[in-house]
Design a protein that fits this description.
single chain, about 400 residues, alpha/beta, Aspartate Aminotransferase, domain 1, 14 helices, 17 strands, about 40% helix
Length: about 400
């Protein structure tokens, strides 16, 4: 894997920040975009701009072919059984809400249990709280240990005959923990529960095979996997999607409409109301091509070397504590430093051209679990390298000197 070649494909990374070459370490929030993705979006608007599925003229037909071509790329990327199982949404948040407001409202009733974990992103907490308040379902939360891990033994004990849905993050954005979602899915299915996996953080960093995992739903966002914002994917097993009502009405989700009744379109279009994000879909297809060209196995191995190096160098800093030390984790390091507020540190580090995230990372219960107001998070991508880690360490020491 030629690192220099890869980094040079990202135009934004060539700019200066406060007079320093930019070190971008906020990939957990959003990734930067390679030129091929930017070019693909531009190509659509310059040469292909037409609505898909609705025109019999050549321009529309070409746009439709490109749009559906991206769907097939994503089907292969996730190893879904059919393109009918690939639903385009705005992102992971909308995908989870879609399941909650369609499958959830159709299949859950008062007393049924929804099981999540203590490390979930707000997007995998709030939709289930809304269902709890509306329907009277019971929301159960599986605790995590001091390393930021779940116990499969505890998970088994939390599963009951009343568990109807398990919704779990594949890789934690706040801790980096990679959960054993395949084993969890099998255990959940043994009690008759449906499983939704939040894959927003996992998809950029590891191979995801939804048929191997066995989950019923899997969600991810394009902007975290080097694609554009405003586009994401919900994978769902065809039989479940067929039985679910539409999430929104109008546009492409209809087959026929009269004032008496509406017949809905077939999958996957039943869940894709209105004019879709055509440019976003094509940009996501280009991002998938970019990742496939490098190879996810190569990306995983490379990022793990960065994670190990950064963890070792950070551990040498006096007063620094890593939050989340799971045995199996992705290239995310959250940490706090004694006597230094994360927000102050991140602001000062930015003056050195180092961009890290300091916040609760949309995972306030995680911060409450570890009794910290926030953490500094360095999250890595395929364009980061060892020199970025050295700049990170230097910026931490420089910021600490200014604070103290």
């Amino acid at each position: 894997m030629n690192f220099t070649d890869i980094r040079n494909q990202f135009p934004l990374l060539k700019q200066l920040e406060n007079g320093h070459p930019l070190v971008y370490l906020d990939n957990g929030a959003t990734s930067q975009k390679p030129q091929v993705v930017i070019d693909r979006i531009t190509q659509y608007y310059v040469a292909e701009n037409a609505n898909v599925h609705r025109g019999v003229y050549g321009l529309s037909e070409r746009a439709t072919e490109a749009y559906e071509g991206s769907r097939e790329k994503i089907r292969q990327f996730l190893n879904a059984a059919s393109t009918k199982e690939v639903i385009f949404v705005r992102g992971t948040t909308e995908a989870i809400n879609l399941v909650a407001q369609t499958w959830g409202r159709q299949n859950l009733q008062a007393g049924d249990e929804v099981l999540i974990t203590e490390m979930e992103h707000h997007s995998n907490i709030v939709p289930w709280q809304m269902l709890r308040d509306a329907l009277g379902v019971v929301l159960k939360v599986l605790p995590i240990n001091d390393l930021g891990e779940i116990s499969l033994k505890d998970f088994e004990q939390y599963l009951t005959a009343k568990t109807k849905l398990v919704s779990v993050v594949h890789m934690s954005n706040a801790l980096g923990t990679i959960n054993p979602v395949k084993a969890m899915t099998e255990m959940a299915h043994n009690v008759g529960a449906v499983v939704l996996v939040d894959g927003a953080q996992a998809v950029p960093h590891m191979t995801v095979d939804v048929q191997d995992i066995g989950c019923d739903f899997y969600a991810f966002s394009g902007h975290k996997v080097y694609g554009p914002t405003g586009i994401g994917v919900l994978y769902g097993k065809e039989a479940l999607l067929e039985a679910m009502p539409p999430y929104q009405g109008g546009g492409d989700m209809i087959y026929s409409v009269t004032f008496e009744e509406t017949q809905y379109n077939v999958l996957p279009y039943k869940f894709e109301a209105g004019t879709p994000n055509m440019a976003g879909v094509m940009g996501l297809g280009a991002a998938i091509d970019f990742v496939n060209k490098i190879g996810l196995a190569n990306i995983t191995a490379y990022e793990q070397t960065l994670l190990q190096e950064a963890t070792k160098k950070l551990s040498d800093i006096p007063g620094l504590k890593v939050i989340g030390q799971a045995a199996d984790k992705g290239a995310v390091i959250s940490f706090v430093i004694e006597g230094a507020h994360p927000h102050d540190m991140a602001t000062l580090m930015d003056q050195e051209g180092v961009a890290v995230r300091a916040s609760h990372h949309c995972a306030m219960p995680v911060m409450q679990r570890f009794q910290v107001p926030a953490t500094i998070r360095a999250s890595f991508g395929v364009y980061n390298h060892s020199a970025d880690i050295d700049r990170l360490i230097a910026a931490i020491y420089e910021s600490l000197d200014m604070l103290r």
